[in-house]
Design goal:
Oligomer: heterodimer
Largest sheet of chain A: none
Largest sheet of chain B: none
Helix content of chain A: 40-55%
Strand content of chain B: under 5%
Structural class of chain B: mainly alpha
Largest interface: A-B, 37 and 27 residues
Distance between the termini of chain A: 56 Å
Order of helices and strands of chain A: HHHH
Structural class of chain A: mainly alpha
Strand content of chain A: under 5%
Distance between the termini of chain B: 72 Å
Radius of gyration of chain B: 22 Å
Chain lengths: 147, 126
């Protein structure tokens, strides 16, 4: 945010102590700090209308790609038998979780970008990083042998 | 020069709507927690029974298993922790955001829960 310099105001009572004075108040170039309050942005907040920087777009793109890989990995392990010999309610519950784990990466990406759009880029990227840790498709690694 | 655009602060979701979200997802998270507690009891009993059986055989003690308490307790903590985080995030948000965050918290907790349902039995490998 930028602030305009106020016109000189001779009526303001200035302390003429040399050490604290920045010049004559009647001077046309004089800027009076008392009339130029510095706007302090709310920490952690950003204007949602502000376009994303190229750096943040790259960051979100990287996480978007990673989350897409997660979705594929969860999809490939969709048929994994997580529980055995359980009642119908738990079977349905696990099936719901099975579906939600597949859509969770896309959901996380969308919710962070949508619900936290007023937050700083760094905050949103940290949430993305947390999502990458939480939603890591361990069943994909556990049910497959590599090499 | 640009003037600062004042941020429009939307009013939080009505209490009735939030209550419905809390109750619905609270029940789902509670069910997940109950299943995790049952899992802890079942696994610990199985390990105890297995070790007791090994103790009755000659030289079987070397095959004894230990109960994976850390993972079983973590399994129980996932759902309450996810619910608490979702509650904290949505304390001043609109209803749509509240629903979205709770759904995401449930999905993320579910993914972790499924991880552990697969991982804990592999630690025992009876």
């Amino acid at each position: 945010m930028t602030t305009a310099a106020s016109p000189p105001d001779g009526s303001v009572d200035h302390d003429d102590d040399a050490a604290l004075s920045w010049g004559d108040a009647d001077d046309a170039t004089h800027v009076d700090a008392a009339h130029n309050p510095v706007a302090v942005a709310d920490r952690g907040a950003r204007d949602p209308e502000t376009p994303e920087t190229s750096g943040s777009l790259v960051g979100f793109g990287v996480f978007g790609g990673l989350y897409l890989l997660y979705t594929v990995a969860w999809l490939l392990t969709a048929s994994t038998a997580y529980v055995a010999d359980v009642d119908t309610v738990l079977t349905v519950f696990v099936d719901v979780l099975r579906f939600l784990s597949i859509v969770a990466p896309a959901l996380w990406f969308t919710v962070v970008l949508w619900a936290a759009r007023g937050r700083r880029t760094r905050t949103r990227l940290l949430w993305m990083l947390l999502g990458a840790a939480v939603l890591f498709p361990w069943p994909f690694l556990m049910t497959r042998s590599f090499g | 020069m640009t003037a600062a655009t004042p941020t429009t602060r939307r009013s939080p979701a009505p209490l009735a709507g939030r209550l419905v979200v809390w109750i619905v997802f609270g029940a789902l998270f509670a069910y997940m927690t109950v299943q995790s507690v049952g899992n802890l009891l079942t696994v610990s009993q199985s390990v105890r029974a297995f070790n007791a059986f090994l103790g009755s055989t000659s030289g079987g003690d070397s095959l004894a298993r230990s109960t994976p308490w850390v993972w079983l307790v973590l399994d129980i903590l996932i759902a309450p922790l996810a619910f608490a985080v979702a509650l904290w995030i949505t304390r001043r948000t609109r209803l749509a955001v509240t629903v979205g965050v709770f759904l995401l918290a449930f999905a993320a907790a579910g993914a972790l829960w499924l991880d552990l349902q697969l991982f804990v039995p592999r630690l025992l490998d009876f």
